[in-house]
Structure formats: C-alpha cells, structure tokens
Amino acid sequence: MSGSESEEKNERMQRLSAVRPRLVSFARLQLRDLAQAEDAVQEALAAAIEKDESFSGRSGYETWVFGILKYKILDALRAQRRDGRWQPLEHELDEDAIDRLFQQNGRWQEEAKPASWGDPEAAFLNERFWQVFDTCMIALPDNIARVFSMRELMGLTTEEICREAGIKENNCWVILHRARLRLRACIERGWLSEEN
Amino acid sequence: MFKMMMCKEATRLMSKRLDAPLSFQEKLSLKLHLAMCDACTECNKQFTLLHEVGHRFEVFVSDTPDNGGGAHNE
Predict the structure, then answer these.
(1) A24: closest CA among A39, A7, A11?
(2) Tell me, what's the ipTM?
(3) Cβ neighbours of A26 in B, within 8 Å
(4) Most exposed of A19, A169, B52, B65 (fewest Cβ within 10 Å)?
(5) Secondary element (H or E) of residue A61
(6) CB A59 to CB B43 under 8 A?
(7) Domain Putative zinc-finger: where (chain B) (predicted)?
(8) Which of A150, A121, A61 is nearest to B61 (CA)?
C-alpha cells in the first residue's frame, strides 16, 4: 500500500468515527433499543472497514456506509420479529388518537389545526429540528414508529413493509396515516414552541 | 350531488398519496379540498416534509461538522 493510499484510509477511519453518533441515532429510531442500535452500527462499520476496497469513491463515503447500515438494520428488525419482540399491529388500529384531532363533522379541532413551520429547507439544516424529530419518533408507539421508519427512513415500499411486518397493505396505509398525523402534531409542538 | 370532502378524509388521501397512486377521483377531491383549506395545505406540506426526512437524514449524517461536509467527495 502506498503512503497516499494509507493516508486516504486513515482519513476514512476518522470520518467513520465522526459519523458514528449520528448513525447510532438513526439506527435507534428504528430498532427502538440503544444497545441493538450500537450493535448494528458496529457491524456496519466493521463491514465498511473490511470492504474498504469495494468503495468506488464515486458517491460520498458516508452515503456508502449508510447503505451498509440499512441492511444491518433490516437484519436486526427481522431478528426482533423472529424473537417475538414486535407487538401485534392490530392493537394500533383503534381510531381514538386520530378522532381526537377532528370534530364529528371531519373538520380539524381548533387546537389541532396545523400551523406553518416556516421554510422547510431551514428546518432540515437546523440541528434542533432533528432533536425534535428524534424526540417525537421515540414518543411514538414502537410498532407504529417501526412501520413509519421502514417507509420513510429506510425507503421500503408499503408492499415490502407488509411482507416484513406480516400485515395487509391497507393496514399499512392506515398506520402510516396515523404515524404522520401524530408526528406532525408532536413536531409542531416542539419546533414552534422553542422557536418563539 | 358532489359531496365536499372533510379534513380528516383529506389527510388520509394526502398520506396515501405518498405511498401509492391515487385514483383520478381521489386526486380531484384532494385538490379541491386543498384549494379551500389552509390547515390541510399546511398539513400536506408537513407530510411531504416528513416524506423527505430519510433522504435529508442521510445528507445530515454525511455532513458531520468534523469531516468538512460530505460535499468534497463530489
């Protein structure tokens, strides 16, 4: 290995340790368990180091590592399900939490009406937005959050989620609708209240 | 007679839209409702923002302060 190659490798190792905390928080949102999240990240980092040569250098290094982590998270999710750690999703199909947001006639309750969040670009660039998002994801019931994160964080299709979670596609849409309504309400409380 | 869709149903469609194609009828009723309802228009923006959150999280992760941002690999 030439000097510049090992230098590059060194730089990548430093980048791995810099990115590690955010990878752990990403994995934790989905696995709902800090120890398991750390394990998944550890495995992903080990795989990244082992497969260092297969990194083509065309896309970002962190993005490449992120891709590896997603596979590890999916493996861990499957193991959780096999171990019976997923509560049945049918429990989440009651309409109460959603009904409270709306009046009998289907209009928003006055206090539940969505307000503007300002510039979404600015939100995404703000560290605090991510803290609020993290808090609100953790506050969601595990099984709802899992479906939401498989869809929106892992980018699985609802068809794939149905296969992973053993539910019907229609239920999947119902759960995602619920998750989005709850998350938006929670984020709005956290995001707008601290800002003013 | 065309029955006006209410907010609760509108939020169901604006969520479903992100996971599966809507029928022509669904698209039309959602569009009509959004044209008249500010609260649902905000809700729709927020659902769309949440839909982008995975991609943005990746950008956020790749942009850790100590590596000078992921952009220098481009």
Answers:
(1) A39
(2) 0.86
(3) 57, 61
(4) B65
(5) helix A61-82
(6) no
(7) 7-40
(8) A61
